[in-house]
Amino acid sequence: GKDRIIFATKEDHETPSSAELVADDPDDPYEEQGLILPNGDINWNCPCLGGMASGPCGEQFKSAFSCFHYSTEEIKGSDCVDQFRAMQECMQKYPDLYPQEDENEEKEKSSKDLEATPLEASAAKEKNGSS
To answer: Which GO terms describe its cellular component (predicted)?
Structure first.
């Protein structure tokens, strides 16, 4: 295995340590890295990506995310519309894996909320007017 048990004696602790610190290895699979590796590459294994880099749309995600990350446009990512469209089209083929908010449901819900408000307001006016 990767672990090794070493027992230290009292005599071992009497002399100063000669251990040398080794710089982190960016290729160490056990070392947790952030989204961007020290060499500037994207860490596709970062838990922060929520597994988006794997799965049926992983390649489309990588393409879109890479384009955005390396974009030098004034409006960052404005040159990546095609890649993001391809990713979205792929995700729509797998709604169980990539659930999306249904914009139509949201619009219907908010319009029902707006419709309810004027009705309640007119009902309140009628009550106040009859007193």
So the answer is: mitochondrial intermembrane space
Amino acid at 26: P
Q: Which of 29, 81, 36, 90 is nearest to 59 (CA)?
A: 90
* Extents of the domains making up the chain: 51-99
In three-state secondary structure terms, 48 is helix
Structure tokens of 30?
């056990």
Q: Are 63 and 87 in contact (CB under 8 A)?
A: yes
Domain 51-99 has CATH 1.10.287.2900: yes
Q: What is the mean pLDDT of the chain?
A: 77
Nearest CA to 46 out of 56, 36, 57 is that of 36
Q: Which residues of 95-119 are buried (b: 16+ CB within 10 A; e: fewer)?
A: eeebeeeeeeeeeeeeeeeeeeeee
Q: Does 74 have pLDDT greater than 90? A: yes
